[in-house]
């Protein structure tokens, strides 16, 4: 039995009634498989994410509605990073006996609200009791016009490195939560309710502005490393140009050490992309007050590694080979 | 960090090296999303399953290679039940610290071996440590020619009810394991390494023999109930015709009460389908020595409910409305 005394079938039926009847699907929740039509001429994109209680989240810190939204956003962010449009979401839930039906309802409301934000539908999933902790697995399917998908391996020496939004807010919030302090509200919102940059990703792909793209989940340094590994390139990154939010800047005045979080903190879910210099003005024109786009460096040859420099070009961190980002 | 001191990236890299390079995919493991092409004129099928330690399996009972295979088969079985061909598999793993690297390797070998059996490729996933127990979430994508998908809602009064293979073996094995006894080997194999009936499902769909289909995961009684609910029908089921394996029959001689397991036990992963009577001979001709097909009843009008009768037509169980299959 599931929480609140609901059986599995009853829970699924509750959920099904709150979804669009089939939505864009040929068949939604309630059969052995969801059945969907991938738009003609488009490729299917799929990504899976795990969110495990006490590893990825603590229920004492995050509201269940936010957790539902975040579970969707972190997953959809992978589709955004390929330049695609999310279509269907699949939710697998291991539900501990002590989760109240009210909390479960708030969670699923959050899931459905984020799906609506991104134009996706909840198309299926699985639920069962979990003997130990809440376990969430989310799989998103999306589509991208064939040939427009933006992978990690297309960066070339000379390309500029861009990032959307601001960096480090989410990591700053986590740092404060772990220390038992109340984080700045704006940073906490970024940590609990990140937004996947779907529209930006689609535009960059459609205009063929991005040569490589990834979403920042592990942190700028680590995720840029993935692009460099896949593309066989190096990069030089201007540390002084990393975009920081007003809340982050204010916090940093008193605790300058948090500046590292913009480089190494995770869960920004901003888009990090490379783009040939001739597109620089056009890329800059895509920025909005809500979503700035910042040029933070340039791709170089692989033998350079990843170098972090300041405005004067002085090396501000060891080369990448000396930096263990698995630690 | 993951088991055996492997980091997440290292584990994914190990796994990636053991997969077909991209296989049938445009892009496999190693980018934000897997990228695939759904065959022209085909619909996309997707299903997700959870397997949680101490809910769905006990590591003391099942070998890790079998667990890997079973995780794939139970998921692929949903694609088989729609008449589809599995294409891609996505694996999300929450890995406890005490799982050895050897066990993890055996698990992934099992996953890959089952993928090969079904003609699918491991296309992506997510891994992280689990603070408590092994947590497996599997998502399969498949395809079926548009219009040939077999759903649960197509049964019509007069259709015959068919089932593949034999029933109750898996449930018998579980019963014995729970009682601390050694199950018959054949039943244990069915419990630990069930086979998804992909070829049969595809044939039934391609020939348009099946009007409704489901795989038996919750038990014949419950899963036939899903077809009846979706189709708005009743059924009469001949209890004496349920196909039983030699091992099951031998066991039943000493413990006749296990006969119920063929009706209510779960995890058979056989195909349960309905078919208009004019196809009866053609359906019968699809049976093989390894995979019998048995006619076990007939669809009736919904007011009849689900009636279980013996060879003489005597009611052998309460009508469905009096039977709580959520319990």
Automatic annotation (TrEMBL), chains A, B:
Remarks, miscellaneous: Reaction mechanism of ThiL seems to utilize a direct, inline transfer of the gamma-phosphate of ATP to TMP rather than a phosphorylated enzyme intermediate.
An example molecular function term from Gene Ontology annotations: thiamine-phosphate kinase activity
Domain PurM-like N-terminal, chain residue ranges per copy: 30-144
Taxonomic source organism: Geoalkalibacter subterraneus
SUPFAM superfamilies: PurM C-terminal domain-like, PurM N-terminal domain-like
Protein name (Swiss-Prot/TrEMBL): Thiamine-monophosphate kinase
Database matches in InterPro entries: PurM-like_C_dom, PurM-like_C_sf, PurM-like_N, PurM-like_N_sf, ThiL-like
Gene Ontology biological-process annotations: thiamine biosynthetic process; thiamine diphosphate biosynthetic process
Family: Belongs to the thiamine-monophosphate kinase family.
Binding site for Mg(2+) 2: 49, 78
Enzyme class label: transferase
Residues covered by the PurM-like C-terminal domain: 156-302
PANTHER family referenced in this protein's UniProt entry, alphabetically: THIAMINE-MONOPHOSPHATE KINASE
Residues that coordinate or bind Mg(2+) 4: 32, 47, 78
Residues that coordinate or bind Mg(2+) 1: 48-49, 126
